[in-house]
Amino acid sequence: MKREVKIGRKTVGDNNPCFVIGEIGINHNGSLANAKRLIDMAVECGCDAVKFQKRTIELVYTKEELERERPNFFGKTNGDLKRGLEFGKKEYDEINKYCKKRKIIWFASCWDKLSVDFIEQYNPPCYKIASPLLTDDELLKYTKSKGRPIFLSTGMSTMKQIEHALDILGTKKTIIMHCTSTYPSNTEEINLNVIKTLKEKFPCPVGYSGHERGITPSILAVSTGACAVERHITFDRTNWGSDQAASLEKNGLYHMVRDIRQVPALLSDGVKVVYPREIPIIEKLRRV
Questions:
Q1: Are 174 and 184 in contact, with CB atoms under 8 Å apart?
Q2: CA-CA distance, 81 to 15, in Å (whole number)?
Q3: Could you say which architecture CATH assigns to the domain 4-285?
């Protein structure tokens, strides 16, 4: 079975280099300068793509939720925060231009139909369905209507819900991302063998969207069969923001990408051989 999906000039799937996504999300804290620095970080560490999040605030959140008191950088309410974190056309025009300059793919998780229409103007190579939206049939149908590949994140979802989402999206252009929606995730919540389960059950590529502390689970995910890995990235995990603690700083991102790239060579072909560099050791140490 050939499991692969084209994302721009990249191919995501078995027997291809792991597709690594640096999830910028809202870790830019409303600053375009921060967003550019995070793009630079992703490029310098060897990521294949960066991802943002796009919302139409008044559609995604209720009036009561927006008016809820929540002191923050931008004001006193949750609405002040959500609006302050949301980039508009001016910022995305610059992001689009800057990613082209840095030669890195960018795309977004769109939380509503208007956000899909907004991102569509940039001719994105793909979209992502965030875990909370996996059960939103209308959004799934609308995103699919654009004809682009889709990463489907599966946190907080049952196998039955995943099956239903794939009934809508189809499997030809969908990449399933195993995910646990805790920030950060505890070891016992990660369950990497679900990657094998998903690969056995569905004919599409399977990746991993991680929210753990550290990098070990993300590397093990690749050895378990994940063909894509997504991690939140940040300058400083102690920064203000709901995603920061589950994010990787530059040093962690660099080492994760480096180690992921080594996994195919580490696993190799399974054939037991004596390597040429072992011959002098045999001559030195073996008695018989």
A1: no
A2: 43
A3: Alpha-Beta Barrel (3.20)
The token pair at 103 is 């030669």
Regions of the chain with pLDDT less than 50: none
Tokens in use for 60?
């995604």
Rounded Cα–Cα distance for residues 211 and 243 (Å): 9
Is residue 275 within 8 Å of residue 66, measured between CB atoms? Answer: no
Q: 229 φ, ψ to 5°?
A: -135, 130
Q: How far is CA 125 from CA 8, 79, 97, 105, 220, in A?
A: 5, 31, 15, 8, 27
Among 58, 120, 126, 62, residue whose Cα is nearest residue 89: 120
- For 245, half-sphere exposure in the C-beta direction (CA atoms, 13 angstrom radius) is 8
Whole-angstrom distance, CA of residue 251 vs CA of residue 256: 9
Q: Fill in the amino acid letter for 253.
A: L
The three-class DSSP label of residue 79 is: helix
Q: What is the tens place of the pLDDT at every residue in 65-93?
A: 999 999 988 999 999 999 999 999 999 99
CA dist., res. 77 & res. 86, Å (int)? 15
Statement: the pTM of the whole predicted model exceeds 0.85: yes
